[in-house]
Amino acid sequence: MKPGIYLDNSATTRMDESVLEAMLPCFRQNFGNASSVHLFGQEARATVEAARRSVAELLGADTREIVFTSGGTESDNAAIVGIVEAARSAAKHVITTAIEHHAVLNTCQALEKRGVSVTYLRVGSSGVVDPDDVRRALRPETLLISIMHANNELGTLQPLEEIGRLAREHDVYFHTDAVQSVGKVPVDVEKLGVDLLALSAHKLHGPKGAGALYIRRGTVLRPLLYGGHHERDRRPGTENTPGIAGLGKAAELALAHLEEEARRVSSLRDRFEEGVLRAVPGSVVNGDPARRLPTTSNIRFDYIEGEGFVIAMDLRGIACSTGAACSSGSLEPSHVLSAIGLKHEQARSSIRFSLGRFNTAEDVEATLEVLPAVVEQLRSLSPHYRKPAAAL
Ligand code: PLP
Predict the structure, then answer these.
(1) Ramachandran assignment for 155, one of left (phi > 0), alpha (psi -120 to 50 degrees), beta (any other)
(2) Is the CB of 177 within 6 Å of ligand 1?
(3) Is the pTM for the entire model greater than 0.90?
(4) Residue having the nearest C-alpha atom to atom 5 of ligand 1
(5) Residue 392 — very low, low, confident or very high, per pLDDT cuts 50/70/90?
(6) What distances in angstroms separate CA 230 from CA 163, 196, 239, one per listed residue?
(7) Measuring CA to CA, how many Å separate 188 from each of 70, 113, 194, 263, 278?
(8) Per-residue confidence (pLDDT) for residue 140, from 0 to 100
(9) Distance 72 CA to ligand 1 centre (A)
């Protein structure tokens, strides 16, 4: 297969070669159980603890505050369910937003069925939560605020520092799903004021099936699983040493190149958007143009059908998406795009392009060469589309 152009890094990223190099010994000579007493076990333990230091350093956390998990979904579940289940109060309330990933939304919905009250905050047309709305939603029985750092469809960044201050003032736990932001923009748990933070290795050029949950010291939560005493009794199960080693390496690489990579990728993204907006009339960037990840561009091409666009681009060797990979195939418009006020047909004509470490200026130029014709071809199939007079 000819290597295509991959512009779907929000779905997952290609693993870095040095991540693979860090993982391979864990499948070979360093195969021990990190809980075993003998030398094999000690070597595996050393690998796990080195990775924990790298993840802690990336987040500005203490190593004792990092718990390894199977990924973002588990970390989100463990944080939200863990806080709610540990609370002894009869009335329980959680504040979240309408634009969270399903790992948070469906967890909150499951808790509602158990009698927990949940407020789903609305966002403005740019996809940003207003901290005043968070303040207004607080109740005496609020246990937790769970608000994502960067949205997976739009890339929009939320004002976590302000919300963190609010949470502290009101003595409420604060969790953030930072699966999309970690490794792409600076994430410092002290600066953001979060008590719990979820991340996932495969979004930062690490392996799938590995992630971490930052848990601020002193946070009381009930573990999701029952088992052995691993991870300081926070998460039982034999440690996934290859995955953890890969996550550690991915965190180390991300930190080493954070600022220069953010600059490089955002300039690629800006060039891409400028090229698209110039060549395709009736194209609009969704979400906040400034307050967002350097990697993500969500563009609406009126009168096209998103799925058709993704397939047509794929046939030309370019991978992009209509939104979250886990919602692909759904006939419903994206809950995120609906929440920012897009009409059904506008949401269905929106495409997410997400760049990453391995994208180059050539990728962007090659995409810009084919994209306008693909949009034009799809528009010609729409009974509602009229070519602008200037283009006739
Ligand atoms: N949260 C966000 C914002 C995501 O984008 C994703 C993955 O798409 C997840 C959570 C789930 O992470 P994982 O795939 O590691 O379970």
Answers:
(1) left
(2) yes
(3) yes
(4) 152
(5) very low
(6) 32, 19, 8
(7) 22, 34, 9, 19, 37
(8) 97
(9) 5
